[in-house]
């Protein structure tokens, strides 16, 4: 396991005006050299990045707590563990969390989530969905009476919950879920049933062996009518023996690409009865006589989903921050090739190609984190019942989840490639990050399906007969202030000009998709026309989300503390200019931008790379990712990579014996037989 020094030992005041306090005696001189070049206050950046002093202090408390409690840490690197060992390790740490339950504070969901993430990192754990889905959905969907009944035992740990929506045969299309909950007014119970094997609940974490309750999403039937999917809280196991209850079948679904410390499971119902009160009734309800009461707003049930996705966007951006940290630090201690013949090998981060592989994703860490933070603030307003903009916000949360998870997965792979052969080793920490990010592109909604949901909303707004120029979609009905971009130099490219150019490009993409759909709809049935336009529709959705990210990024950077604003501005420019250059066709469409203007943006990209190069290590230091979370030999703070790689090999079971048993069992007899014939 990579060794780490407690944060309290790392922080040292240095006699320089612009300091990076990650410098420590015994560090690799190459990485110390990088830190001494910092042009900004790293601590100030860290405080801004993590949302202020109070929130940062909460993170530090969690880190110090885990440093001081070894039972909350892995005994040895998890890549060397079997699946059974991973699950045992996970449950051991869960038991440790229960012992130190003072760190679990559901009134501070951010601190609690960080505590869980720091304990379990990316291995998956038996109770992850209890905290990340079960409790938040219970809070957002249960009535006050239900909260008073279910929340105390759920917080105390008596109830271990999961969220069971996905089925073997259905995922994102929840209206077609096969699990049914049919109301019986005679007994005032719901009867849950799984009609076919494809209707089995499939994938929920901890469903296999460890949870005893689940929030189950099933299609509600009452008075002979289907009212669509609704959430129900269901007890699955005996609270004393932990045995599965009668009329239920559940188990583990087997090993996966990642998260193998979690017992993702399956669940089938056979006419299983639950009380009427087990339907979560904050927004809709079924009365004792079977009468269905609709929610006051048809989309209010989405508020919990918006909250979960807001956390997901911010957290998945943090996984990209991990990968960028690893690739950047390693690129400053890895020397390969010469830029000047005979001058000696250079740090691979000195190559522009390496910078272009890593730095745009460094900029995306900032952009995506800001977008996630803003979405989280919006979700808090939804909790207060402010639903007027819910359709806008639901589309935004769907689109952000889709775009960010896809870009993060792509970015982590680029960081793996940036680390060369060592990036393929689990010692780098990147394969685990990559496996985790792959899953995020599917769970909580398949990305393409979510983009089509965004597109559906955009088409509705575009067709509106009473359009508004306000709100997130207001740009669609604005008239262009100019038929051409006024960009003359990337150095003087104002925020207003940038937003105006992105609005123009986005509006054209969305309206082109709208007009194509209109044309196809005149020739084909609506569903066929939609399918024939689906690629263009997903492009429109992506541009809508990109525009939102650009807007919020520029706004937040303009309001950042003055001493860190220059480095943030450079990162924002790199994100924006690279986006424009990589999608130049959308900006040059209808001659809105000229080839010369695109070339000017390219110059802005190259200049940003060179500027960021000076501060690259200090920027990733400012992300303040603890060594326990980073789990990387290549990305370790001290830069002493090569001795640590050799140390890593000591954990391999194959190295316990000089001659492996398989040699004696299979190869030796063959070799002896061959030699006997010679």
Automatic annotation (TrEMBL):
Span of domain Acyl-coenzyme A oxidase N-terminal: 41-160
Pathway: Lipid metabolism; peroxisomal fatty acid beta-oxidation
GO CC list: peroxisome
Cofactor needs: FAD
Residue span(s) of domain Acyl-CoA oxidase C-alpha1: 302-459
Record: active site: 444
Compartment annotation: Peroxisome
Tree of life domain: Eukaryota
Pfam families: ACOX, ACOX_C_alpha1, Acyl-CoA_ox_N
Keyword Thylakoid: no
Annotated GO MF terms: acyl-CoA oxidase activity; ATP binding; FAD binding; fatty acid binding
Entries under InterPro entries matching the protein: ACOX_C_alpha1 (IPR055060), Acyl-CoA_ox_N (IPR029320), Acyl-CoA_Oxase/DH_mid-dom_sf (IPR046373), Acyl-CoA_oxidase (IPR012258), Acyl-CoA_oxidase_C (IPR002655), AcylCo_DH-like_C (IPR036250), AcylCoA_DH/ox_N_sf (IPR037069), AcylCoA_DH/oxidase_NM_dom_sf (IPR009100)
Residues that coordinate or bind FAD: 166, 205
BP term (GO), one: fatty acid beta-oxidation using acyl-CoA oxidase
Keyword terms of this UniProt record: ATP-binding, FAD, Fatty acid metabolism, Flavoprotein, Lipid metabolism, Nucleotide-binding, Oxidoreductase, Peroxisome
Main location: other
Record domain Acyl-CoA oxidase C-terminal: where: 496-672
Family under the similarity heading: Belongs to the acyl-CoA oxidase family.
Protein name: Acyl-coenzyme A oxidase
Organism: Caenorhabditis latens
